[in-house]
Design brief:
Elements (H helix, E strand, L loop, with lengths): L11 H5 L3 H19 L11 H10 L10 E5 L7 H7 L4 E6 L2 H14 L4 E5 L11 E7 L4 H8 L3 E10 L4 H7 L1 H6 L4 E7 L8 E7 L4 H20 L3
Parallel strand pairs: 1-2, 1-4, 2-3, 4-5
Antiparallel strand pairs: 5-7, 6-7
Helix pairs in contact: 2-5
């Protein structure tokens, strides 16, 4: 076990995690500080910061998530932010997508221990599920630079779906650096969103990208329209 003690939750945690979410958040904090650290999913130095840096910082992302959506957490790791979002938002369906076996085993144990019925754990890489699964929202935290993350997330989103990438103080820089990728991906909008005011300090910064029709899908639709037009002309319509 570790020699670091899990700190008492701050008062604001009671405002963020309410009802059944409170006991689950406490239990998840214990899992992160115990098995999560022992198995190398979280560093020992993170134990004193589990509540403020991890649980609360992830929970406030829920402010940007619409009701009753299907969310995929890309590269879920120790379940941050995906498991936290599932705890604080029982109305949403959460898929924890993670390629590494030791992490998916930990996530499955957490889901079972916390009795979360709105969560599934999926082992694999995002690109493996493009065209096979579709979601309303994709979340990601410390997974990859934004330009690379876009190539993984956008194929998993429905048209009009949203990527919510936790990016912190470098968010504006990454958004600017991904300009070319954003333009070529046919996204509708890309902007910075600040959440958690009065709950976490500093507030959490997200890059929110709204997916448009992917260029490939658009070209396929265009070809279908062209074929239909040619067919009508051939029939004299």
């Amino acid at each position: 076990m570790t020699d670091q003690q899990l700190p008492e939750p701050p008062e604001v945690a009671h405002e963020v995690f309410t009802g059944e979410a409170w006991s689950r958040a406490e239990a998840f904090a214990e899992l992160l500080a115990g098995p999560g650290v022992v198995r190398g999913l979280l560093g020992p130095r993170e134990i004193p910061r589990i509540w403020d840096r991890h649980l609360l910082n992830c929970a406030v992302v829920a402010e940007a998530i619409p009701a009753d959506v299907r969310l995929v957490d890309i590269g879920s790791g120790a379940g941050l932010p995906g498991l936290v979002l599932a705890i604080v938002r029982p109305d949403i369906s959460v898929t924890l997508l993670e390629p590494l076996l030791r992490r998916t085993v930990f996530l499955e144990e957490c889901v079972e221990t916390l009795k979360l019925e709105n969560v599934e754990v999926l082992r694999g890489r995002a690109e493996e599920f493009a065209g096979r699964r579709e979601f309303d929202v994709a979340s990601a935290r410390a997974v990859a630079p934004l330009d690379r993350l876009l190539t993984w997330a956008l194929p998993l989103l429905r048209e009009g779906g949203e990527l919510l990438a936790m990016k912190g103080e470098r968010a504006a820089e990454e958004l600017a650096a991904a300009d070319t990728q954003l333009r070529s991906s046919g996204v509708r909008t890309a902007e910075l969103v600040s959440v958690g005011h009065g709950k976490v300090e500093p507030p959490a910064t997200l890059v929110r990208v709204v997916a448009g029709r992917a260029p490939m899908k658009a070209s396929q639709a265009s070809r279908r329209t062209d074929r239909a037009s040619r067919s009508k002309r051939a029939r004299g319509q």
